[in-house]
Sequence to fold (441 residues):
Amino acid sequence: MALDLKPIPNDLRAFWMPFTANRQFKAAPRMFVAAENMHYTTADGRQVLDGTAGLWCCNAGHKRPKIVEAIQRQAAELDYAPAFQMGHPLAFELANRLVDMAPEGMEHVFYTNSGSESVETALKIALAYHRARGEGQRTRLIGRERGYHGVNFGGISVGGIVNNRKNFGTLLAGVDHLPHTHLPENAWTKGQPEHGAHLADELERIAALHGPETIAAVIVEPMAGSTGVLMPPKGYLERLREITRKHGILLIFDEVITGFGRLGSSFAAEHFGVQPDMITTAKGLTNGVIPMGAVLTSAEIHDAFMHGPDHLIELFHGYTYSGNPIACAAALGTLETYAEEGLFARAAELAPYWEEALHSLRDKPNVIDIRNMGLIGAVELAPIAGAPTKRAFSAFLKAYEKGLLIRTTGDIIALSPPLIIERGQIDEIVDTLGEVLEEVE
Ligand SMILES: Cc1ncc(COP(=O)(O)O)c(C=O)c1O
Fold:
């Protein structure tokens, strides 16, 4: 078969790849050159089934016409407009759409360019909000062990993944961490685990230690993705909300992964019925096609800044590309695709099938836990003694050879396919992964 292959550069040295084993990759490169719907095409012309929606972001699948057209049209019409002191219609239209689909209480949108920037933005807004209200002593930020909030300094400070923190100095001062919620007694749980709501009470201990009046915000992923897919125990998020509200502490949900349908609802806040004060988003906002993030805030937070003379800037924060016109067009095309194809409801509908399929891997070699929710799942492997992460990385390489893209974090295989996935493709993921698990050491 004649293949229309793209040339591959023969010198891979210059590009220092992010979160990648650079030397291993460059010795045996894995290159994607095209993508459509559920599949990538590799440089050697193979089809690879996307089991991870890119990096948890291509929720509508790849090369979707509405998004492609929106970007092309916008690039030819208004390529860029200054983000400060000037506007363009799409930024306002998109903000209104986001507020319409967001959980109750989210009424304003601040644009960023990534999940990491959304996190920094939310943390800064939290600090500035308290100061605007005359509570400038609220400077402490509380994250959680194993939390992933991107890679910027605020995010790694409140984050709790040691490799992302330990090489980067002293980080932000005044940060504390809740314990993670990954309890061994919850192994093999389908959906929300039974045990662990009490871990939210640790916030009371932290508040008592520092004085609740010094704490600005608590940030958590309602379902923690990048650390290995950890579900919130039943009652946990409700308890966090109760305690934060009692002490006047803001609650930020980092929904960079859970936003835009992953759990079968627009947002995890809606899925779990818990209302935070701010929500950070990115990824699925533009289907991963153009970098963009957004922070959603309550009216109370926004309105606290709207004081003083009209000509003064209220919040000294923003990015050159906040609300970039092409990013806004991509986001609007994405939201239209989600709505027209009913993709969030589709994820909810497929979730039970996904759950059963995934848990059928229970008896494969070295599998020590499987967990799932919506269209997300994790298969946790026992680490090889003395070589943690190696078994899962071998599984990743083998899956790629067999035409399946998975993601690994530590010794956990994380799966989060596009929401357009068909049942037959769920079977394909599970069958391929089953073979992989039989074959890896
Ligand atoms: C919960 C969460 N927050 C923040 C981020 C960082 O997003 P980005 O890589 O776009 O900066 C991620 C990325 O996976 C994430 O999962």
Notes: Residues 114-116, 119, 148-150, 221, 225-226, 254, 256-257, 282 surround pyridoxal-5'-phosphate (CB under 6 Å).
